[in-house]
């Protein structure tokens, strides 16, 4: 093994001792299952005792019925009896281990599932600023595989440790009782066994990790090659890609071989140790037996007990490694659970009743990274929308339109100024009651796996089917939905993948309407529908706008021109505001945008 690999080993194993705090917390996950846990430990002890009894019975059978000279008939009955008891003990042991394994899995899976639920619940509550810092997919994937890796410790940790220790100590104690000298002599195999197991397991773990890494590179290359096959063919890259793939495959083969080589050296070595132990028992124990200091039955039992050494030592080493490699996972999971959402309900937060729908921004200054000293993303924003009015936000990409919406939703908090709804600071009401008043349709319209109907009901699960169809009819989306494969019962793939962008968009509009919000926010919501469809829902939208306060962000100015007021944003500042006619008459930035739009 090279020096670099040795270093890697050290890095892997040296630093990651599990802190006692983490360990205690991990054990606390098991606490709700303590009764099953205790059952598990009791059965572990009983199963181990039953296993240790086997060689005793053998010894008894040999010494009392075979080597002691009695008449043949009595001896035969005795041996048969012992054999029957041996079998009975075996069956009892089997039953005990069934309970042992089942209870262990109940405890481990229960604890893991609790952790999974806790993590999911927690991730849902985290503020959006957390997701800005960490990639969403990675958070979930990491938490999931971290919890998965706790399985070894949570399910098997306690009972394997107990059964290994008991087996080892029990076997030693029984051997000591027979003859302490032979016991001492046989014990010489333990240190090399423990040492070689430890070295082997560390290296095997590393070798397997290298193998897995290369394996996933190989899979990724194949997947990418297939997904990108059009591009590959178009650029005639087949041969180059094949060459690269072949190289990856060969490297994978080498890694498999080097992992296998470890087994080829380790397993024979263990075989040699076990042979050595047997040789000691036969040679030294045989001498003792000839001198009459040890019985033949005891000699046989010795050989069986020796065989019981190997498993527990391997298991204990393995568990120790698992504990080390689990430390990092456990710390990450607990770290995630300890991350406090930055935006939470204040202790004195009130519940916002049905809102009238008056929105006010008062001198709002905001940036996503509150520690940076860059320019503001929103700079001194001041405006008011009265109940029932429609406010349109216009401006280039990146001018801060969506950020205004995020502040209204209190996904983030402004560093200066206040965001008010019906005269209350949005920071002083509960997030849930705030979000109930507002429905948003954005351009990245997210649908969930399930039917169209389920998606429409998302914000208001109690909505009846008739209400939902009514909403769709009002919006003019009913016939589009009915034309889908199974109408309202059409199944939507993950993220709505089985629908066209336009269809998704229309469903999202309907979903927003079903929610019956007091405030409707459309953030470039019509960008995915074709102009003809847009014109169709335009008219329905206007009816929606009449009854509620609305905030509309759109690039196509046809959606915007009927707004009560239009704010033109530039680099986070309001540069113009007024009605469509006023702004066109002013001849400023909006007028220029509008001229361009009309020319299109
Ligand atoms: N989550 C975020 N973290 C950091 N910066 C962001 C984030 N979202 C948007 N921004 C930045 O804020 C500015 C305004 O963005 P946004 O409000 O989305 O603009 P618009 O909706 O007008 O296109 C842009 O410069 C954008 O890069
Ligand atoms: Mg935007």
Short summary:
The chain is of the alpha/beta class and 600 residues long. The protein has helices at 3-14, 20-30, 34-66, 72-125, 128-133, 136-149, 151-178, 180-186, 190-227, 229-234, 238-290, 296-338, 401-408, 431-437, 452-456, 465-475, 478-482, 501-514, 531-547, 557-560, 580-586, 589-599; strands spanning 359-366, 378-385, 390-395, 416-421, 424-425, 438-441, 450-451, 491-492, 519-523, 549-553, 565-570, 573-578.
Which short descriptors sum up this protein?
binds adenosine-5'-diphosphate, 22 helices, elongated, 600 residues, ABC transporter transmembrane region fold, alpha/beta, four-stranded antiparallel beta sheet, 2 domains, single chain, six-stranded mixed beta sheet, Rossmann fold, binds magnesium ion, 10% strand, 12 strands
Describe it.
The protein is α/β, with parallel strands linked by helices and 600 residues long. The chain has 2 domains: 12-176 and 325-340, ABC transporter type 1, transmembrane domain (ABC transporter transmembrane region fold, Up-down Bundle), CATH 1.20.1560; 359-599, P-loop containing nucleotide triphosphate hydrolases (Rossmann fold), CATH 3.40.50.300. It is 66% helix and 10% strand. It is built from 22 helices and 12 strands. It has helices spanning 3-14, 20-30, 34-66, 72-125, 128-133, 136-149, 151-178, 180-186, 190-227, 229-234, 238-290, 296-338, 401-408, 431-437, 452-456, 465-475, 478-482, 501-514, 531-547, 557-560, 580-586, 589-599; strands spanning 359-366, 378-385, 390-395, 416-421, 424-425, 438-441, 450-451, 491-492, 519-523, 549-553, 565-570, 573-578. Strands 6-9-10-3-11-12 form a 6-stranded mixed sheet, with helices on both faces. A 4-stranded antiparallel sheet has the order 2-1-4-5, with helices on one face. The chain has a two-stranded antiparallel ribbon with strand order 7-8. The radius of gyration is 36 Å and the shape is elongated. 29% of the residues are buried. The protein binds adenosine-5'-diphosphate and magnesium ion. Residues 132, 368, 377, 395, 397-403 line the site of adenosine-5'-diphosphate (ADP).
């Amino acid at each position: 093994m090279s020096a670099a690999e040795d270093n890697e080993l050290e890095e892997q194993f040296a630093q990651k001792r599990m802190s006692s705090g983490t360990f205690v917390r991990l054990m606390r996950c098991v606490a709700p299952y303590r009764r099953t846990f205790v059952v598990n430990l009791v059965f572990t002890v009983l199963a181990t005792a039953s296993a240790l009894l086997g060689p005793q019975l053998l010894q008894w059978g040999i010494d009392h019925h075979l080597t002691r000279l009695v008449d043949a008939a009595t001896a035969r009955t005795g041996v048969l009896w012992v054999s029957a008891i041996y079998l009975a003990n075996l069956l009892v042991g089997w039953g005990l281990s069934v309970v042992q394994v089942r209870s262990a899995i109940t405890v481990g899976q229960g604890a893991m599932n609790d952790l999974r639920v806790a993590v999911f619940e927690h991730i849902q509550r985290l503020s959006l600023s957390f997701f800005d810092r960490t990639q969403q997919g990675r958070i979930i994937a990491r938490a999931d595989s971290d919890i998965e890796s706790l399985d070894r410790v949570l399910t098997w940790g306690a009972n394997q440790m107990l059964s290994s220790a008991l087996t080892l100590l029990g076997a030693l104690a029984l051997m000591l009782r027979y003859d302490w000298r032979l016991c001492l002599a046989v014990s010489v195999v333990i240190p090399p066994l423990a040492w070689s197991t430890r070295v082997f397991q560390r290296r095997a773990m590393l070798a397997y990790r290298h193998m897995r890494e290369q394996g996933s590179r190989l899979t990724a290359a194949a997947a990418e090659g297939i997904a990108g096959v059009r591009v590959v063919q178009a650029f005639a890259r087949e041969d180059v890609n094949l060459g690269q793939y072949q190289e990856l495959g060969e490297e994978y083969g080498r890694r498999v071989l080097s992992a296998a080589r470890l087994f080829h050296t380790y397993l024979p070595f263990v075989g040699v140790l076990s042979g050595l132990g047997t040789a000691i028992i036969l040679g030294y124990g045989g001498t003792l037996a000839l001198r009459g200091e040890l019985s033949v039955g005891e000699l046989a039992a010795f050989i069986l007990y020796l065989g019981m050494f190997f498993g527990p030592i391997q298991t204990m080493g393995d568990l120790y490694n698992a504990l080390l490699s689990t430390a990092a996972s456990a710390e990450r999971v607990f770290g995630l659970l300890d991350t406090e959402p930055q935006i939470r309900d204040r202790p004195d937060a009130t519940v916002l009743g049905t809102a009238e729908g008056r929105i006010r921004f008062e001198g709002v200054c905001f940036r996503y990274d509150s520690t940076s000293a860059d320019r503001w993303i929103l700079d001194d924003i001041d405006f008011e929308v009265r109940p029932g009015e429609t406010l349109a936000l216009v401006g280039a990409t990146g001018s801060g339109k969506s950020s205004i919406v995020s502040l209204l939703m209190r996904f983030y908090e402004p560093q200066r100024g206040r965001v008010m709804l019906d005269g209350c600071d949005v920071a002083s009401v509960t997030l849930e009651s705030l979000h109930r008043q507002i429905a948003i349709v954005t351009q990245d319209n997210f649908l969930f796996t399930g039917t169209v109907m389920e998606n429409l009901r998302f914000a208001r699960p109690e909505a009846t089917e008739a209400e939902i169809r009514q909403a769709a009819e009002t919006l003019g989306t009913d016939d589009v939905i009915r034309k889908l494969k199974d109408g309202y019962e059409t199944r939507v793939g993950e993220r709505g993948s089985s629908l066209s962008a336009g269809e998704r968009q229309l469903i999202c509009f309907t979903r927003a309407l079903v929610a019956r919000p007091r405030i409707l926010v459309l953030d470039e919501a019509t960008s995915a529908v074709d102009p003809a469809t847009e014109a169709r829902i335009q008219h329905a939208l206007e009816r929606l706008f009449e009854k509620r306060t609305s905030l509309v962000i759109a690039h196509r100015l046809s959606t915007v021109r009927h707004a009560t007021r239009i704010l033109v944003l530039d680099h986070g500042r309001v540069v113009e505001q007024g009605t469509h006619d006023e702004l066109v008459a002013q001849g400023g930035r909006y007028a220029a945008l509008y001229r361009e739009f009309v020319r299109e």
